[in-house]
């Protein structure tokens, strides 16, 4: 931070350029474009692909609202599909939505934004197959999946382009807002670079209509200092998740389903129970705060309900919203604290034994 301050250069300077190169290299991709937030990264990734008004973009309803904000900001229509028991995009639901062929105003199918929710990569081989078959671009929303892998391959390296957020609580977090667009395609990166700064190709001359979405030097300096600890932090999250799994499997909550071949980075550790609200209150009484990611599916939120087209059933999304609970998980959480959470949860589980409280698989 001192280095950034002393340089006297605060926007799009050497720290941002170095961080872009370092994060791209971490991902094994050619290009990183620092932007102001993860929401902007989703918008800019789509705009770099040329997605805009008249286009339909498929994504999930079970996500942070930011995913859908980014899609709508391009002028495209979001078409929401269901998730499976990994909480991520259900390939069958995507295929069904494409086959349904109901798109408002005859919007043409252009892209899918796949969200690697809670740190678990979605079923990418299957999704890529369906998307390519339908001529869709693939954007990976990696805002919760820095460093996650599937079959040894990092999230962000499957599709055409990826969006990251560095909101402070993310697996890699700045001391404020930040985001990044990652891609292996230099032409897409060049488009994103123009768009993030007024559409300038040459300074003061806009080649296209752009916006202002820049990562600042101070945040880039912080991110450069933190990036070397990302893998270690993710390993700690995975160790906490393994401890939860070992002790909570067989209790009254359903523990997260992890697909085979996946290296989950546990941005969240989400259990399910149809007595969720009771469990949440029980834990809070014992000083343990939990959260719900997310309590209301996007298509049921006031800003979206009745406005977004619903072309497939969102049954799993709607059901799990009333059952999910995110337990505490972050790298600095101590083993003692993890044990306290486990003991409190098992005590609750005991108190409801004989009363069915768990839930079966999501499907
Ligand atoms: C956090 C998040 C975003 C948006 O990131 P911001 O930096 O808050 O704009 C987008 N998608 C998902 C899945 C997220 O979790």
Main features:
seven-stranded mixed β-sheet, binds pyridoxal-5'-phosphate, Aspartate Aminotransferase, domain 1, single chain, 363 residues, 2 domains, Aspartate Aminotransferase, domain 2, alpha/beta, three-stranded antiparallel β-sheet, 12 helices
How would you characterize the overall build of this protein?
The strands form four sheets. A seven-stranded mixed β-sheet has the order 1-9-8-5-4-2-3, with helices on both faces. It has a three-stranded antiparallel β-sheet with strand order 7-6-12, with no helix packed on it. Strands 10-11 form a two-stranded antiparallel sheet. β10 and β11 form a beta hairpin. It is globular and about 70 Å long. The chain folds into two domains: 2-228, Aspartate Aminotransferase, domain 2 (3-Layer(aba) Sandwich), CATH 3.40.640.10; 230-351, Aspartate Aminotransferase, domain 1 (Alpha-Beta Complex), CATH 3.90.1150. With 363 residues, it is of the alpha/beta class. 37% of the residues lie in helices and 16% in strands. The mean pLDDT is 96. It has helices at residues 2-7, 14-27, 38-48, 65-73, 91-100, 124-133, 186-196, 217-226, 230-248, 276-285, 315-320, 335-351, and strands at 31-35, 55-60, 77-81, 108-115, 137-141, 149-150, 153-154, 161-165, 179-183, 200-202, 205-206, 262-263, 269-272, 324-327. Pyridoxal-5'-phosphate binds next to α3 and α4.
